[in-house]
Write a structure and sequence with these properties.
By secondary structure, this protein is mainly alpha-helical.
Length: about 280
């Protein structure tokens, strides 16, 4: 008798169950990205060196200025004014850190790992802006307020005149202005993806307008453009936000500090929008 060939094994009545991890697997959100970027920012030496140099410049130079002034000097000078001397140089530290916050990942190739672990690129970039902006603002404001408080302690009195809330709101606005420069630097770093290139671009944005404006005013054809550049640039805006309005070379009142702040805010917003568009589409 011919044996009947065995057929395929009967299918099991029970379907295999999908693997379920015993660990909690929450849906990724912005908070996770912020925690990741905070770990990155606080675990690299560049953050310590750049923000440390910012504090050293603002507090160190500012305290030297405080010790060299007298109460009568503050009749027309806010108590936070001495912090401006160190902040004019210390803003470079914020700019450098802003560029390095993202360009260093492109330089080392770590950005591939970041976008593999977190495919939502816009969420990652948003977390970078939030973490860096908050950290830069708090460190800058804390340094400026430290100098202002010591100036008020050492020189407050009848000879210093009356001082109101405007002294301290100017410090907040000036710190926010420097933070915007750092956010602009981060956006430039995302666009150029190169540390040296991004830093060079930002240093040109901050330091070149006064020089370029002086050159343009020497020629009659471009004198109007030169005067415009001299009136609207980062150093002038920072000085005005600290309550030192001043006048221009022809004796006219300098532009409003609000105008300077809005101008930088518009430029920064444009760069940030461009960085979102580029990071979303460009390959790493």
């Amino acid at each position: 008798m011919t044996p009947t060939p065995a057929g395929p094994p009967a299918a099991s009545a029970e379907q295999p169950q999908a693997y379920s991890s015993p660990l909690p697997t929450p849906r990724p959100h912005l908070g996770h990205a912020i925690a990741s970027e905070w770990t990155k920012l606080t675990s690299v030496r560049s953050t310590l060196w750049t923000l440390g140099s910012l504090v050293a410049l603002v507090v160190g130079v500012g305290m030297i200025a405080v010790l060299q002034t007298a109460p009568a000097d503050y009749q027309y000078l806010p108590f936070t004014g001495p912090a401006l001397f160190g902040l004019m140089a210390g803003q470079v530290s914020v700019i450098v850190l802003g560029v390095l916050t993202i360009s260093s990942e492109f330089g080392t190739g770590l950005i591939r790992t970041t976008f593999t672990a977190a495919p939502e690129r816009l969420r990652v970039l948003t977390a970078k802006y939030l973490v860096f902006g908050t950290c830069a603002f708090l460190v800058t404001l804390g340094s400026v307020l430290f100098v202002g408080l010591w100036a008020a302690i050492l020189h407050n009195g009848p000879a210093a005149g009356a001082h109101g809330l405007s002294d301290w709101t100017g410090a907040v606005a000036g710190s926010f202005y420097v933070t915007l420069l750092g956010v602009l630097a981060l956006a430039v770093g995302a666009l150029v993806r190169h540390s040296a290139g991004g830093i060079a671009v930002m240093l040109g944005v901050v330091t070149m307008p006064p020089v370029l404006g002086a050159i343009l005013t020497s020629w009659p054809v471009t004198s109007g453009l030169g005067e415009l550049v001299l009136r609207y640039n980062a150093p002038v805006g920072l000085v005005q936000l600290f309550g030192l309005q001043g006048v221009d070379m022809e004796g006219r009142s300098a532009p409003s500090d609000v105008v300077q702040l809005v101008l930088l805010l518009v430029v920064t917003a444009g760069a940030v929008i461009a960085s979102y568009a580029v990071v979303r589409r460009r390959d790493v």
